[in-house]
Design goal:
It is a single chain. The chain is built from three helices and nine strands, in the order H-H-E-E-E-E-E-E-E-E-H-E. With 190 residues, the chain is an alpha+beta fold. It has two domains: 30 residues; 147 residues, Lipocalin. The chain has an eight-stranded antiparallel beta barrel. Strand 6 and strand 7 form a beta hairpin. The chain is globular, with a radius of gyration of 19 Å.
Length: 190
């Protein structure tokens, strides 16, 4: 590399760091996320329909998305995310990951491993007393999932859970209702 090119690359790098620092300087630090006080892992296991989400790139075309959890003998949680790609009659896709419960969190914080050795932040921020609805969030406030044991929930429940998500510091204008077969009340546009 020529000296001028090296100097320009260094200058660009320094400028990028400075701009990033300026952009974040005006932001207030976020309060810690709410967490479910105690999660009974055996009750939590099973199928959860994704009702609404600030979704990852892999989920944006998902129809009838569902997370399935199974506790393994080693204490980890085998997780399968499945959905129809692009349409209700689209091909069914499945992705497996493994959850590792963080000790001392009431089972509400997990490291979710999609690729070894990286564990993504996974927090059970809200869990209904009857284990019928859950909000899974991340400390970074980049992704969030509202899930239920049924493919639809009442509009009032979705509104209440959306308000909870907003109170955690999420931009709920990014929250998208996920299309579920049978649609029901949660299929209405945002």
């Amino acid at each position: 590399m020529q000296p001028r090119t090296v100097a320009m690359a260094i200058a660009a790098g320094v400028a990028g760091v400075a701009l990033g620092a300026c952009a974040s300087a005006g932001q207030r630090p976020l309060a810690p996320l709410a967490l479910a006080a105690q999660v009974d892992l055996d009750r939590f296991m099973g199928d959860w329909y994704v009702i609404a989400a600030i979704a990852t790139v892999f989920e944006r075309s998902a129809h009838s998305p569902m997370d399935s959890y199974r506790r393994d003998a080693d204490g980890s949680v085998a997780t399968t995310f499945s959905f129809n790609d692009g349409a209700f009659d689209g091909p069914r896709r499945q992705y497996a990951s493994r959850g590792f419960v963080v000790a001392g969190t009431g089972n509400a914080v997990w490291g979710q491993q999609y690729v070894w050795p990286i564990k993504a932040d996974y927090r059970i921020a809200y869990l209904a007393a009857d284990y019928s609805q859950v909000v899974v969030a991340r400390e970074k406030r980049d992704y969030v999932w509202i899930m239920a044991r049924t493919p639809t929930i009442a509009a009032a429940d979705l509104d209440r859970l959306t308000a909870f998500v907003a109170a955690q510091g999420y931009d709920t204008s990014l929250l998208r209702r996920m299309p579920q077969a049978g649609g029901g009340e949660t299929s209405r546009p945002p």
